[in-house]
Amino acid sequence: MGNFYMPLVLFYPKHQLEQGPKQLSKLLENSFSKALTYHQPWVGSLRDNATIHCDDTGAEFFEVEVNCPMNQVVHRPDLTFPPGLSWKNVPHANDGGRLSVAQLSHFDCGGMSISVCMSHKVGDARSAFSFLKDWATITRQYPNGELSCPSYYVQDSLMPSLPDGPLKFPVVVEPNTEESVEFEKRFFLSESHIRTLKALIVDDPSSIVQNPTTTEVVSAIVYKCAAIAGANISNGNDSSCQMVLVSDLRKTIPPSIKSTSTIGNILTAFSTPIYNLEDLRLPKLVADIRKSKHELSTRDNFKENKWVSEMLEYANKINIEIEDDQSYRQKSSCHDVYRCSSICNIPFQDLDFGWGRPTRASIASTPFSNMIYLMNTQDQNKGIEVFINLNQQQMSIFEQDKEFLQFASPVGDNHAHEDKEKLYCMEAF
To answer: What PANTHER family does the entry give (predicted)?
Structure first.
């Protein structure tokens, strides 16, 4: 993976917090330090593209006061981290940059947020959740909390290093923000609208998938409408596009180390075919996503490290260069690529540090273009929140797409949630 941060934030309103800010700060700082003793790579230092020295370089822990009520941050349509956390910067090799950063933010309404930035070099979103879960467990039991089953870092035991040396992914990812200003927007799809979307796809005479999953249908409609918006900018019918999706391989790893707490970038990617504009039909998109997932699940992704070689070959073929999306667009003039990652099955909303579940768990905006993230909403996982990053011109078209707005509402809009959801948000603060 590239060396960029995974930014996560948890919000806790005042009525959940029994302790004062000073007591909470000391408790979280001490438990953070103790949790890191179980996660050595995240307190190490990056030496080259494939090596992290577990040398106890350490992590950073900040505490800030934010001069606004928490709901002004929670309900922004473009969620940004509370001020002070430079999460868009990345830890450089050999310059003392930290691979993990945490920040405790106190809002003037009495609410609090816990923000973390974890380097993707060490592990994926599931890995970051394992750390947060351990931190929460230790905090609840502090000072006597110990972990009976510490997380397992796979290192070379699962995926041996390639014989020709480190993988050729850039050590530092620095998006070109001067040439292309990216905009992130968040959209909410309720459970009822997702059911309607599934029924629409299943009832189509051309549909061959009779039980589409939520991730399949949501990623399909977001990708379709974003690609159409992009085609409108480039004068349309000659445009072609493709979606690349990320898949967690933990369900297929050898039984001897099979565990949800296995730490690393245990991921692979699969893609749709390259579509012309007229091919962007939801039943076909869902069928192609299902077909690609099936092909992934029926092969041995670990035998002789074959899947790593396939990933590298695939990445070279489509010229994925995340560090410079503008350069990527020029080199990949044959088609646009949209990347989609779902963290819907990772229960960030359940993290309890001793004062209950967060009112909201979220991710911050990504600095990369054409990125789509899917995450469960807080209301008992009944809805989906979509985070999408597009350039300004494309976003202005996408957010007005009538087909998409049949099922999705902009977060931050007065009608973003159903009345029950809005009431829940108001009561939380």
So the answer is: ACYLSUGAR ACYLTRANSFERASE 3-LIKE, F21J9.9
- Judge whether residue 363 has pLDDT over 90: no
**In the predicted model, what is the mean pLDDT of the chain?**
79
pTM (two decimals): 0.84
The fraction of the chain above a pLDDT of 90, given in percent, is 41
Token pair 């509402």 is found at 409
Same domain, 361 and 224: yes
Number of structural domains the chain divides into: 2
Task: Kindly report the length of the chain.
Answer: 429
Nearest Cα neighbor of 177 from 387, 333, 366 is 366
Structural domain includes residue 177 = no
Same domain, 137 and 215: no
Residue 287: domain span = 183-428
Reference 36, options 69, 60, 68; nearest CA is 60
pLDDT digits (tens, 9 = 90+) for 329-352: 443 446 788 999 999 989 999 999
Question: What integer pLDDT is reported at residue 252 of this predicted model?
Answer: 73
Please state whether beta strands 182-189 and 262-263 pair in parallel, antiparallel, or not at all (unpaired).
unpaired
Interacting residues of 74 by C-beta distance below 8 A, sequence separation 6+: 11, 359, 360, 425
Tokens 């087909």 correspond to what residue?
403
Instruction: Verify that 191 and 133 share a domain, yes or no.
Output: no
Residue whose C-alpha is closest to residue 292's, from 334, 245, 337: 245
